[in-house]
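job 3f2a | input accepted
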Amino acid sequence: MLATLRAIGRDLGGTLEKLARERLLGLDNPVRAEVIAALDDAFTVAPDLPSARKQCRHLLTDPNALDAAKACWPALPEPVGEVSAVPHRHTVAPIIEPWLALIEQHCTLVPEDKRFIRLRLVTLSPGHAMRLARQYVEAWKQAARGEPRKHAKDNAGRRAANHLLITRLSSKH
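job 3f2a | predicted structure (173 res):
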């Protein structure tokens, strides 16, 4: 998974890549994918490479960032080694939107799903985003129930829920 980051131009550098490898080693694949997605997000929002690496190191080592991340990644292990003291006001923790948390509780999301949903709901008012999140969950569940093949239920749910978002939001514009 780290090779994928490297292939898309997310250069962690040797030391940080080693730290990431140590952190990812004991995680199962879904949690590992969540951590990789968070590292990718750090590169996406950072203004430059040093800032991106700093945020990635922060995500991998700072206990406060890890505590916030555990809401999303419950199997994330405790930090390895010493962590330098960072004043609380400088701590940046990932923000988990309540509407995304609701969807994650009921649907099996992959990182691409989260990006797709965020892209569409982040600009809406909190109430509107939460209403659409509830509709998203219901569309997912209904489509999954209607799919007779067990292995295809998540994809059926995903297609229906994503279609709902696209149609509801395109009708507003």
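job 3f2a | The mean pLDDT is 79.
job 3f2a | closed
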